[in-house]
UniProtKB/TrEMBL annotation:
<dbReference type="InterPro" id="IPR032857">
    <property type="entry name" value="ALKBH4"/>
</dbReference>
<dbReference type="InterPro" id="IPR000504">
    <property type="entry name" value="RRM_dom"/>
</dbReference>
<dbReference type="InterPro" id="IPR035979">
    <property type="entry name" value="RBD_domain_sf"/>
</dbReference>
<dbReference type="Pfam" id="PF13532">
    <property type="entry name" value="2OG-FeII_Oxy_2"/>
</dbReference>
<dbReference type="InterPro" id="IPR012677">
    <property type="entry name" value="Nucleotide-bd_a/b_plait_sf"/>
</dbReference>
<feature type="domain" description="Fe2OG dioxygenase">
    <location>
        <begin position="203"/>
        <end position="328"/>
    </location>
</feature>
<keyword id="KW-0694">RNA-binding</keyword>
<dbReference type="GO" id="GO:0070988">
    <property type="term" value="P:demethylation"/>
</dbReference>
<feature type="domain" description="RRM">
    <location>
        <begin position="21"/>
        <end position="99"/>
    </location>
</feature>
<dbReference type="InterPro" id="IPR037151">
    <property type="entry name" value="AlkB-like_sf"/>
</dbReference>
<dbReference type="InterPro" id="IPR027450">
    <property type="entry name" value="AlkB-like"/>
</dbReference>
<dbReference type="InterPro" id="IPR005123">
    <property type="entry name" value="Oxoglu/Fe-dep_dioxygenase_dom"/>
</dbReference>
<protein>
    <recommendedName>
        <fullName>Fe2OG dioxygenase domain-containing protein</fullName>
    </recommendedName>
</protein>
<dbReference type="GO" id="GO:0003723">
    <property type="term" value="F:RNA binding"/>
</dbReference>
<comment type="similarity">
    <text>Belongs to the alkB family.</text>
</comment>
């Protein structure tokens, strides 16, 4: 699962002293229309390929890892500096690679689940293809036609009620208006979401639209209990990401900074917490309820590339999420008082 990071060495690529089973291949990759599986298929003519990974963020340089050094040498000798008919006629520039151990690796070896059932957090549900591609395009066009608020690293829009990032709460006395009509079909579909017994009471009235550029995530947080009711729906559009969930021991969670934009994810030296992660593809709808909503922190790592089941997945030009919630008007009375700001 770990993505080894490699770099191009300075040595002469042909010298046998520098040979390794790992090749640094320039001028091919997803950015020039060549997928990692297509690259793996071509290099597999020379021996067993263990993996193809991005060499950097350009999308046009990859690392090909063979099992055997002799396979890497054969591939280098056959493919370097010549147009490759099987890869769109591109001329590949190939070197032996070396490991660069100091660079942190995406996901820190955390296995990423594809489904909520695999993740096994009570109250967490994920539905794929909740909207279709046309609906996704329309939703994005609607928000792009409206003004964005710039935060430090991402842009947001609020509907229904403004969310205040300093207090992590909403001013219930100041309603901006109804949710906009361009999300009506999404809200209607949410009311048919399985596993939400009291959905009839949900009457969602707050929407936050987040736009994340590549490499930007969201620090670990629990949406303030006293601010929002128990069902939180988040629709992913445009690009994918992974979402990590952390369950900190009772009695420690409130020591963490309260702003979701504070960089606390690496400052927590208490490693005594459970970690799980799920892949959120575009057009999927995530529901946080029960324990998933009230107890587990959710977190979007600040990655440009996520490792998901041995594939490296690029975040895309942007990810836009629509988070639907219901503003709470009475104190929270959840079953998790240790995690609840209303019951502290
Ligand atoms: O982008 C997302 O899917 C989650 C956003 C979120 O957690 C929040 O706004 O509180
Ligand atoms: Fe959140």
């Amino acid at each position: 699962m770990e993505l080894p990071r490699f770099s191009r060495p300075n040595q002469d690529y042909g010298s046998s002293s520098s040979s390794t089973p790992i090749l640094y291949v320039a001028n091919c990759g997803p950015a020039v229309g060549i997928s990692h599986p297509a690259i793996a298929a071509v290099f597999a003519h020379f021996g067993h390929v263990k993996g193809v990974h991005p060499a950097d963020d350009t999308g046009a340089r990859v690392i090909v890892c063979f099992s055997e050094e002799s396979s890497a040498r054969a591939a280098l000798e056959a493919l370097h500096g010549r147009p490759c008919p099987l890869l769109g006629g591109r001329t590949l520039h190939i070197r032996y690679s070396i490991t660069r151990p100091s660079i942190s690796q995406p996901n820190d070896s955390l296995s990423v689940s594809l489904s909520a059932s695999e993740l096994d957090i009570p109250g967490l549900f994920l539905l794929h293809d909740f909207v279709n591609a046309k609906e996704e395009e329309d939703l994005l066009r609607e928000v792009d036609a409206r003004p964005w608020n710039n935060l430090a690293k991402r842009r947001v829009q609020h509907y229904g009620y403004e969310f205040c990032y300093q207090t992590r709460n909403v001013n219930t006395k100041h309603q901006l208006g109804e949710l906009p009509s361009f999300v009506s079909h999404v809200v209607d579909r949410i009311s048919m979401f399985p596993n939400t017994e009291d959905i009839a009471d949900a009457s969602l009235d707050q929407l936050t639209v987040n736009e994340y550029p590549p490499g930007v995530g969201l620090s670990p947080h629990i949406d303030t209990h006293s601010a929002f009711e128990g069902l939180i729906f988040s629709l992913s559009l445009a690009g994918p990401c992974i979402m990590e969930f952390r369950r900190y021991p009772e009695g420690t969670w409130h020591k963490f900074p309260s702003s979701i934009d504070l960089k606390m994810e690496n400052s927590v030296n208490d490693s005594n917490y459970l970690r799980k992660a799920i892949y959120l593809p575009p057009r999927s709808m995530l529901l946080l309820s029960g324990e998933a909503r009230y107890v587990w922190h959710h977190y979007i790592p600040h990655h440009k590339i996520d490792m998901v089941k041995d594939s490296s997945i690029r975040r895309g030009r942007r990810r836009v999420s629509f988070t639907f919630r219901k503003v709470r008007t009475d104190p929270c009375q959840c079953k998790f008082p240790h995690y609840c700001d209303s019951q502290r």
